[in-house]
Specification:
Layout: E1 3-7, E2 16-18, E3 23-28, E4 35-41, E5 50-56, E6 63-69, H1 87-90, E7 95-102, E8 111-118, E9 125-129, E10 138-140, E11 145-151, E12 156-164, E13 187-192, E14 197-204, E15 211-220, E16 236-237, E17 245-248, E18 264-269, E19 277-279, E20 290-293, H2 324-332
Parallel strand pairs: 2-8, 10-17
Antiparallel strand pairs: 1-3, 3-6, 4-5, 4-7, 7-8, 9-11, 11-14, 12-13, 12-15, 15-16, 15-17, 18-19, 18-20
Amino acid sequence: MSRFWLSDETNNSTEFFTVGSTLFIEGRGLHPSTLYDFHLLDQAGEEPPTLLARYAADRSGVLAAIPLIPSVGAHVRGGGAKLAPSTSRLADRNRYLIHARPCGITDERGEDLPFTLTLRHKSRRVFACDAEGHPLTGIEKGEGPLMTALRNFPRGGVRVYLVPHQEGWQLGDPIQPVKMRNGRPCSWFFSHDGAARRVVRLAESREIPAGSYQLIARSLSPGWHDAESFLLQDDIVSDRHSASLVVRLPFINPLQDCESLALARPAQPSMTTRPWMKLENHSSMGTEVYAAFDLDSSPAGHSGKGAVIFVIRSRVALAAHAPRALRACEAER
């Protein structure tokens, strides 16, 4: 019998997720080399199911941990939508169902996976947000200020660092804040009044180089010396694996640079870290083929959205064989 379960960023199986966290899906005992659909169900029956993703089990019937709802509840700027898919419903209710079933196998009922979105949590958290404190995962350079939300920090001093994205933070890792345009490190100290929710301005987005970042918040008691430039036991990291904030250059026109359209790359999963992939340009018969995305180079507003991957025969000159619609757009430009 197939079995799925949900897990968090620390790879712990759980049914409880906080706003802004990432929900992962895993599976064992599945049909080998079979596609599975994952839908978000409205238990009240007021809305149709939302397709979150379609993933394939490997030839051993295993689905390794993979993001299903990234940054749940996070706002997305650009691209028309303000909320990541499924979060328009998640904002109003707490209890939800994910239905998993194989594609094309009608005599199998599938599996329901309940989970709870926790709007209030007692643990300390730090994440990028908008001016109202809603989680925000991406912003275009020059679009506005970078805001930071703090949750449940004690009264006293707090220092917040904006650091380049690092996979798998460990105690003692050096903290090297990104350099702003004026050469100063993006690190700010302020006095916190002990409120459970606090939003502070970190920097203007035009001052930050384009790239992927994470946030580190350090609570400082009176008399505490905060000169340590390495990760401490009580430091709070926004996400120890995935990027928490992406600052992008303005997305002009993908037809000006065909390479920007090729966001998917053939790859093999890394055996030591997650979710890093090792790029590959060949595969042996009978082995699995994976695709990796570089979200940092994608246009703003794509975080949390579904993607369709097309596998096509290789073409030597893309421009000579481009679809008619693309050639027409290029002619009008």
